[in-house]
Amino acid sequence: MRERLLKLLDGALLRLAPPSPQRLLQLASNRWMPFIGALMAIALALAIVVPLALATKSDQNDPFVLQSADGARFVAEVNGDGDDWVLLGHMFPTKRTKPTHRGIWNKFAERLVAEGYRVLRWDFRCHGDTPCVYSRKPIEDVPDIYLEWEAAIDYAVEEGAQQIYGIGVSMGGTSLMQVAAYREEFVAVSAISSPNIFPNSSKNTSRVTENGFDKLDGLSTVGEIQVPKLYIAGARNQCSYWQSNRYFKAAGEPVRFVIYETDLHGTEILDDEEIGPDAVQEVLDFLADPHGILGKEKRNLAPDADPHTECFPPKDDEDEEGEGD
Fold this sequence. Notes:
about 30% helix, disordered C terminus, 2 domains, Rossmann fold, disordered N terminus, two-stranded antiparallel ribbon
């Protein structure tokens, strides 16, 4: 299945328009083309004619294709069958979690399904099964991944979602903070180990020379998010503590910030044997009752950490593209 999707997405097939009815008839009447070939051509045309916003989906848990507003196609999957949907946006590769794709949510997605939620997750452009748009460097495509969030929201609405929650780790959370400021479908949103702006340096991308190049910017929009917000970060995870604290201070009520004494990042926190159960329960409690947060609440399990000093910016390009995402 993975190889078939990659061939469909990476190849010229998706970039070509389907044959016209006249062309199909011409092919079918060509005496050099066997009858079976005509049938295959017709089947192929039907297979690649997909709606503008999204592709057809087969059975639950099978990967399928969605399309962003800029025409980029990305691979997604749905798990569970509840009426309340949880959308999950993954992180950029780190030294410990590389590569990254929708699969990093496996353990947490299973828990959400067991709790009765329907889960929609996907591979951002230039990650996992989804092809790149600008180059083979994932960093080149990062500024546009918010478009995947938009397409995912549209799909959930189209499928009849009663309530929609959003959870993003690292760059997935940054892009979520950006989108949640103007998409009103969310009931609540959560960002785990998310930077305020990403990419945080222009030297890792050639797109800085292009007109219109931008970065994900969650901090400038977080104050406009009207729904409850949950932030989680590790106090020793480079700048995650400091940047999550900035979100917490800039966000409107209600908002909760949970700090763990760890250097783990993103889904590593949720999957960890020691702190994972507590972190997962924090998220589940938040989803069950987002408005249970009163005002601005902070749960600090690393009381000796200081958000103004617990920040160790990356020293080289590898670190900057990785753990600083």
